[in-house]
Design a protein that fits this description.
CATH topology: 434 Repressor (Amino-terminal Domain)
Largest sheet: none
Number of domains: 1
Structural class: mainly alpha
Order of helices and strands: HHHHH
CATH superfamily: lambda repressor-like DNA-binding domains
């Protein structure tokens, strides 16, 4: 992964965290609403975020009641 790619993933994770807190969800609640593992949400918001696929992006956007474009 290049430095630029990692920077994009870090910004994405920060956006997810921002919207999660705005909606009042814990990481556990977001994981449940998005049908994802709690550890996956932790990794997305962490220092070494994973690359995220389209399906997971859609699940997160739906759970946060926003559009995928807003997350990106």
């Amino acid at each position: 992964m290049t430095a630029a790619e990692k920077q994009i993933l870090l910004r994405f994770g920060a956006r997810v965290k921002q919207l999660r807190k705005k909606t009042g969800f814990t990481q556990q609640q977001l994981a449940e609403y998005a049908s994802l593992e709690y550890k996956y949400i932790q990794r997305i918001e962490g220092r070494n975020p994973p690359s995220i696929g389209l399906l997971k992006l859609l699940q997160l956007a739906h759970a946060l009641n926003t559009s995928p474009a807003t997350l990106l």
